[in-house]
Write a structure and sequence with these properties.
Elongation Factor Tu (Ef-tu), domain 3; 5 helices; alpha+beta; 4-stranded antiparallel β-sheet; 4 domains
Length: about 350
């Protein structure tokens, strides 16, 4: 019985391989591409991030005397976030300003002496050497004055840094220090998040990265809702660890909360044919369509570059193209066919 089945199968294969007789056509069924095409839906893990997720640190060494903001509080740009002990820095500024005033007095005196020496020089009362000495003293004092003005500006900047202010409108995410602690340059004080400049970050495999720019209505789906998005960019480099590319999308309406996690869901706008309709001929995957040129109805094999076994394949044929669905297994490119009703 087993040997009989084997002979029968071989006979069937031989029958398929036989050339068509003159005038013979292969009966097939076909449907328009518009009825067969599907739009694949894709999903990828996503999270909401902020471009302004900042850790605010001290820039000088001083003791923390005030932290007037609390976690969850929204602060405006320029609002006071922390105050550091300012006494030493205020005294340093007073010292530099006093030195500046002293130098200014010396410059005024040197300018008066130079004017006096020039007046006497015209009367040949003082020597050329004394006049040159007075000019040199004035230039030297003016240079010292410029340096002291810079020192005063620097002292004022250090004093201003005792008041730590918000660089942008934000929400307080965490307090990282406490009143009474000694802060050094770089000591983190607060974590703040710009809740207005939010984006959705999505790591994408290569195939998904190619599909997303042609996405139809991408959405962030979270446990609490769905949020429409639009693509801003896909980074032009792969992450060396995960071998993914990061996509960034912007909210087009209401935004999810910072730190929210969910899925990015989108549908491709390119029509795709189901994998079961693909055929392989001469090493290429493609699809058979009905060609009615020259008054004859024939099967035409259309290769689909990039098609993969077991996956839907993108197709760019007109929507009215008749795609052969049944009877395609024995077809070769150019075979005459006859259409039959389903």
């Amino acid at each position: 019985m087993q040997r009989f089945s084997l002979h029968l199968s071989l006979a069937g294969l031989l029958a398929l391989a036989q050339p068509l007789a003159a005038g013979e056509t292969i009966p097939v069924q076909a449907r328009p591409l518009a009825e067969l095409a599907v739009h694949a839906e894709y999903r990828a893990p996503a999270s909401v991030v902020s471009d302004g997720d900042s850790r605010i640190s001290a820039e000088i060494m001083a003791r923390i005397v005030e932290l007037p903001v609390h976690v969850g509080e929204v602060v405006k740009q320029g609002a006071l976030l922390a105050r550091l002990e300012a006494t030493d820095h205020r005294l340093a500024l007073d010292r530099e300003e006093a030195a500046l005033r002293a130098l200014q007095a010396r410059v005024d005196l040197a300018a008066y002496q130079l004017d006096r020496a020039r007046s006497l020089s015209r009367k040949n009362v003082v020597s050329e050497e004394l006049l040159t000495q007075r000019e040199t003293e004035l230039r030297s004092l003016r240079a010292q004055l410029e340096g002291q003005e810079a020192a005063v500006t620097q002292a004022r900047r250090r004093l201003a840094k005792t008041a730590v202010r918000a660089p942008f409108e934000a929400v307080i995410d965490a307090r990282l220090a406490s009143v009474g602690e000694l802060a050094s340059p770089g000591t983190p004080l607060l974590q703040i998040i710009d809740y207005r400049r939010l984006e959705v970050s999505v790591p994408l495999q290569a195939r998904l990265a190619e599909s997303l720019p042609r996405a139809e209505r991408p959405e962030l789906v979270t446990p609490v809702g769905r949020y429409p998005l639009r693509l801003r960019t896909i980074t032009p480099a792969f992450d060396p660890v995960s071998r993914t590319r990061e996509a960034r999308l912007l909210f087009t309406g209401e935004a999810a909360l910072p730190g929210s996690a969910g899925e990015l869901v989108w549908r491709s706008t390119r029509p795709e044919l189901p994998a079961e309709l693909l055929s392989r001929r001469k090493g290429s995957l493609g699809v058979f369509v009905v060609d009615t040129q020259d008054g004859a109805t024939r099967a035409r094999f259309v290769p689909l570059p990039g098609a993969e076994e077991g996956r839907p394949a993108a197709v760019s044929l007109p929507a009215r193209t008749l795609v052969i669905t049944l009877g395609r297994f024995r077809l070769q490119d150019g075979d005459p066919v006859s259409l039959r009703q389903p």
